[in-house]
Amino acid sequence: MKRILYSLIFITTLFSCSKQLVKYPLDAPSTATFPKTDAEMRAALIGCFEPLNFRFLENPYIIWLDMYSDIAANRDNTPNSFWGMPTAGNVNTIWNNFYTVISRCNYLLDNIGRVEGASQQAVTETEATARFLRAYAYSILTQLYGDVPLVTKTLSLSEAFVGRDPKSKVVDFILDELDKAAAGLPANNQPNTMIVAKVAAWGLASRVSLYNERWAKAIETASKVISEEGKQVVLNNEYGNICMRAGKTSKEVIWAIQFNYNDIFHETPLAFRSRMAGGFSNRMPVQALVDAYECTDGLSIDKSPLYNPQKPFENRDPRLGKTIALPGSVYYGYQFETHKDSLLCWNYNVSPAVRVNNLDATHTFASFSGYCWRKYADPTEQHASRSDINPIVLRYAEVLLNFAEARIESDQLDDQVYTAINKIRTRAGMPVILQGKTKAQLRSVVRKERKVELAGEGVRYFDIIRWKIADKLLDGPCYGRNPRGFLSKAPAIDENGTPDYSAVPDRNLMRVIQTRTFVASANYLWPIPDIEIQTNKNLTQNPGY
User: Fold this and answer.
1) Residues 6+ apart with CB under 8 A from 83
2) What digits encode the pLDDT tens for the residues 339-361?
3) Residue 244 and residue 238: Cα distance in Å, rounded?
4) Residues whose CB is less than 8 angstroms from the CB of residue 533 and which lie 6 or more positions away in sequence, other chains included
5) 385 by DSSP, 3-state: which?
6) pLDDT tens sequence across 81-132
7) Helix ranges restricted to H, 312-438
8) Is the pLDDT at 208 greater than 70, yes or no?
9) CA–CA separation, 59 and 267 (whole Å)
């Protein structure tokens, strides 16, 4: 809103200060005619995508979102420092970028009738894509801020000071827009392009509906995606490739933000890699995620006879080692070991391998948790400090879990629930979930599955907020491993896959990465940015800020 207002003030100032304003510049498009041609229409659509390439330090926002949650940590800041006050930088940046998307989509949709010389199919698909992007922007805003201004056209100066609309009204708009978008989007899912397909509109609608407890709509739209399995969507045979360069063209990816080496790249590997691999290790998975992965018998580590506290990474869900660099594994060609007494490690990047000083044990700023991310940290990247991996907004596995959860919550405990969940578990190499479970048991299954399947992909924060468990998970100590060994027994794992270390005798040996704060009466919603409240007196602040 601020950007729209400032632009309008700037234009008004130009008119008042000069009678020589060039309304039709000769060397650039004019707002009086833009977009006029097919090329200008496509350029305008690219402009709608552009704000979604924003990054927090090295990380695209999608990847960064997990730093707000219980499964990851940023060495430099606690989660609430990012969103816990109206002046917090992330609060303002996310608001501005997504309203920029909305503003640009509004302008394109308002003026698409000007386009001459473009095919009707191109116009239809462009309009549908703009509707999709606008709906996506509103989906993020409503989940973070609750009630937000619903702006569906380009505003004049007199219209700029708008108030907040009820979240339910905005969600109605989102779902209606996604229905309209799906009707005009192409059928062919092309993940490594800027093309948005029908399955993306249906998949996003399944997420928005699930997040807002509209179970029937979530089931309906997820079912449409599932009907395209084997054609426009698949489950990638290799889970470990999905968030790597090898997964960029996989049709498990339904929609991703596009990056490339030449002009729009990100530097996520720098933040994720170990010190031995030349990284900062300042964004890391934490012990609460590691301990959530089941053993290969399908039991949690506190119940499985396969779990050995002295060899805690053996006999575990294969997704654990494909998501996280674990002590004792090979990572970027080095022996990855974070035990503080391991002063030397193997360098396998030379032949024969040699022992070298182990920075992951001795460096002051090596991973505070003792772990590093494998997802989005690809050793095959062509540049040491650049990545062109596309951060995944939505993939097919999530849609299957959306479908299963919506059916569980609407008391439809049938074969379709088990089929959807077991497709994912079978792909992962885990035993299937057997039939006959209660609603509470199935709810536990799907929540645990979402935690481990989608870890590191920007979904977790939204899950713990909508399940109303964030006040239990984001208030208190955030733990890393014991820097000089492993715990003597497994923590208790609850129905949500959350570990409780209170009965572990040597829990005091775990590293406390940071102590977090979450105020339940306020923090389930983010504050409206302070600058927006100051600029627009029709905006009200969320409770507790």
Assistant:
1) 68, 90, 91, 144, 523, 526, 527
2) 999 999 999 999 999 999 999 99
3) 11
4) 86, 539, 540, 541
5) coil
6) 999 999 999 999 999 999 999 999 999 999 999 999 999 999 999 999 999 9
7) 318-323, 359-362, 396-409, 415-428
8) yes
9) 6
Q: Counting every residue, how long is the chain?
A: 545
**pLDDT over 90 for what percent of the chain?**
92
Q: Is the pTM of this model over 0.85?
A: yes
- Mean of the pLDDT values across residues 22-31? 57
Helices 120-145, 167-184: axis angle to 10 degrees equals 160
Output the CA–CA distances (angstroms, integers) from residue 290 to 423, 466, 499, 511, in the order listed.
22, 22, 10, 14
**Pick from 32-36, 58-62, 400-404: least confident:** 32-36
Tokens of 489: 């027994």
The ranges assigned to domains in the chain are: 2-185+525-535
- Contact between residue 282 and residue 67 where contact means Cβ atoms under 8 Å apart: no
Type and span of the H or E element at 394: strand 392-395
* Whole-angstrom distance, CA of residue 239 vs CA of residue 526: 33
Distance between CA atoms of 43 and 276, rounded to whole angstroms?
A: 43
CA pair distance 277, 269, nearest whole angstrom:
10
Which tokens is 184 given? Answer: 């005009």
> What's the CA gap between 29 and 297, in Å, rounded?
63
Q: What is the pLDDT of residue 262?
A: 86
Architecture of the 2-185+525-535 domain: Alpha Horseshoe (1.25)
**How is residue 128 written in tokens?**
């549908």
Report whether 176 contacts 204 (CB < 8 A): no
Secondary structure class of 14 (helix, strand, coil): helix
The CA distance from 258 to 256, in Å, is 6
Which pLDDT score, from 0 to 100, does residue 113 have? 96
User: Of the candidates 146, 212, 143, which has an alpha carbon nearest to the alpha carbon of residue 175?
Assistant: 212
Residue 226: name the closest of 448, 414, 423, 430 by CA: 423
